[in-house]
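User: Modeling request: complex.
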Amino acid sequence: MSWSGVLKSPKADEESPAQTDERELLARISRGDLQAFERLYRLYQPRLARFLTTLLKRPQLIEEVLDDTMMVVWQSAGNFRGSSKPSTWVFAIAYRKAAKARARWPDPVEEPEFDNRVSEDALPDEDLHQERLRTALLKAMDQLSADHRAVVDLTYFHGLGYREIADIVGCPVDTVKTRMFHARRRLKQAMSGSLVDWL
Amino acid sequence: MADPNLAERPPHDEAEELLPWYATGQLDEADRAKVDAHLSSCAHCRQQLALEHQLIDEFQAMSPEVESGWSRLKARLETPAPAMAAPVAPAMRRPARPNPLSELWALLSRPAVATLAVAQLAFVVFAGSLLLSLSKPSYRALGSAPAPAAANVIVMFRSDATIEDVRDTLKLAGASIVDGPTPSDAYLLHVAPQQRATALAKLQSNQNIQLAQPIDGARP
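Assistant: Request completed. Predicted assembly structure:
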């Protein structure tokens, strides 16, 4: 009996048609094909924006790191050897670029306050609960390290497997599992806390 | 295949660690079979799996990049007048790129610069009133519906207020935006004149609001 099956995703290790297309785009980009690069940019911009937003607390850096990442893709598409998925390669570049940017510009010391920004009278109960839950989760994410946030986002939003995540962030698979385990505990605490507040 | 160094771990721990990827359908056959087998006998993990599904839904529904993109764009719109920026800037002057706005706010919220902040806010009110008086005629469209309501309140939202916060705050106070953002990111609002005191009190006590002041545009 299977209890899973949430995200529409091919079985792990199977190459999807999208990945085949992306390989082809990378091959064309390595020959200087600007049209192919634009297509790849349009495919990746939203995903990278999301990923980098998770990693970087300074909004101004996101745009810069995203551009830098895509510039590396443009300049070194010829180095993509095809042993990994194209997405793994691109996300790994973004992850390294983000780490460098954070080293140059550490996260701001004073974090935005997330608590209780919901106007209690304006929302029906259901929406209010939803708002509080989301606020609690954002706050919990905010308190995690960038490495933990990356693993959470790559798992829950981008739907990647732990091996691919390990390749992107450059650590052993066990470390990915451990980070995820720790992060989930914090997120679930935040969820139950928000429920208690609501009741 | 399972990692050799995981082989001796209790099945419960191993399965629990794999639950997120089980829930997203990202496990290979061997891992999935292990989790399936464990779930059939572990109520705790079944409960955890339900939470995993909820977390996936939440993360799919969130859009932090929209919030972040908005604050980035808002920061670009923010071009403080030199006279205002000069007194507070030197202590924190760094190469300009990362987030000068939020650092400015952080600085402003410290006691040592509170006085300066008050002066700056006063300037914002003044500038807002000035803007209001300068821009009055443009509110009247040619031969169309009655002129839009006059602004009688100026507010600044907290720098981390989301668009939802702004919307909810306005609804709560019964206010509508007449103009803005001003160069200092203030907004001019209209509230029903007879409700102004109540609306102001609501705005001033609202956590999304940095500043709310009455202004009288000396409207006819």
